[in-house]
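Reopening this one. Same input as before:
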Amino acid sequence: MQKLPFSIQTLAWFALLVAVAVAVHWRAVRPALDEPMGYDYLLEPNPKSVANFADAGWQIAGSQATPTDAPVTFPLPPGNWFTATAWVGGSGEQEWVLRFSTPGARTTVFLPAGKELQVPIAEINDPRTSMTLTLSPRGEIKRGEYINKLRVRLRADLPDHSLSLPGIVALGMLPAMLTLLLLRNKKRSLNGAITSASAFGVAVVLLSLWFPEISQAAIGVGLVFLALIGAALWKRPDAPELRRLAELCFVAAIVLVALQVRWSEFMDLRHVELRPDAVGYIEIAREGSFYQTAQDHAPWVREPLFPAALRAWMLFAPENAASARFFGLLLGLLTPVLTWLAGRRLFSPFSGLLAAAVLAANPFWAETSVSVLRLDLIACSLLALVCVPLYLSERSWWRAGGFAAFGSALALLRINNLLLLPVFVAWEAWRSKWKPGEIAAALVLPVLVVIPHLWFNYHYNDSGDAMLSSNVHVRYYLNRDMIGEPGFPATYQDWIGDEYAGGVVNSLEMFTYYSPGEVVRRFNVGYVNIFAYRFPHGTLFGGYELLMLPGLLGVWVLARRRESWWVVGWYVAYAFPVAFIAARDIDYRLAAPVAPLILWIWAAGIEELGKQIIGLAHRRSAPE
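Same output, byte for byte:
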């Protein structure tokens, strides 16, 4: 069994620190989880071109309001609101006046089209409160243009959360960090010192209950110390254990960054209504058993593992959306850690750390983590499966058990992953010369645990389809692509009215609606969108093309590392069901689990570029 880059004792003490920090902070977290939801208004016009504002029809909170003259006014629900975030679509020089009115008070802002603004508003406790939208005198809607949408999110006044969860975690780690820094030149057992320092850190965390102000600046101080310690210990070839601890310091910093980013997102979104998918997961977690995974709205049936994880969390946490978001926050901390663990073996410790850092700080992943979706759990399960041959390559039965466990998790998270497991197992069995019993162990358990879910799918509403929880989405995308064709929605409005209309279509049958040339073209375009441009460009690198350039050098690095080629095949195979629909347009949450591969290759390019620059500098400074 391959040695991990840290000792179990060190890991246990850091885990204890995090656990104590979360337990202490529960005093502040629990009220936030119990708070009522806020409101997320989405006002959309009729999908038609309009010549002026008065022709637009607006939709809000399920009721139709059609103005005959500007301005347009909508009532707001009573509540202790303190801010609103507003965004109006449009084009050209359009500008809007948005006014929140309560008896005796009024807040007015000018809102340019396409710009999001935060609006401070007074408390709204009166049912006569309203929101008014008017086209500014400086704004203009030209004939042939139309108003896209108005989104307004109201945020409730929050209680005084004086404790900062990331700060408390950093505060607990500080004594251990200082000990590492002081011992960087000492030849002694570091585990004992870390144990003592960690115990002191626990005491400091407890002390913060009475003096919460000391936790406010701890996150910044903690990150600085982690960076200093990592830099001090990294270049110690005479002491490999210090090199491993330096790496662990950088990982701790990455986890702190991930926690800070996700905590901010959690505090910002916990009053906003959840997406329909997330609402369905919570409904199943509250009411279903492990394999009873049906809900009352589309897509009706879900795979069981993620709702089961939510159900386990809700055994001791509130059964509401804010609590579910906090569960996603904690789950989201595992993704960058596993990205580092796999990346350090596939490429290098530096590449693993850099890829994990980008993933930890990425706004898309932070929002995804607190959106009560299964993507972090899918990404972690796939990363854990990648780690099995990397860290368990010397003991076949352990390796077969790892494939069985994490393969079962993948299949219970997305049913079509079951079809990929034989490919992964066949590769590992051929490479490592598995015995027949080991192959059977790796394949049989995932099939056994999925059979009850297949049975439920087959009998749910007499569907007759064992793959219903996956195939139901095929109908969604097919209806979207075939608008106007016989047997499909006649218009875009009809599709919006019932996106899942029609019988269930299985995944293979879907391809019969397209020509062979179109199928090939869409797969090619889809893979390019996922791995080479649209997903990395728009999501991982925020639209900055220049940031993507090191990835080209990373591809060259990968081409020389033949021992790592297999992981590319795994992720390409995983993306196969998504690539076809990614050719047109896609919510890139579906492609999110492939992000670690993209970032590993990109980080390898960054590392190679640094080596080349340093080598060039050394050559120029060398004496003649």
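So the earlier flakiness isn't reproducible anymore. For the record, The beta strands are 39-45, 58-60, 63-65, 72-75, 81-88, 95-102, 105-112, 116-120, 130-135, 150-156.
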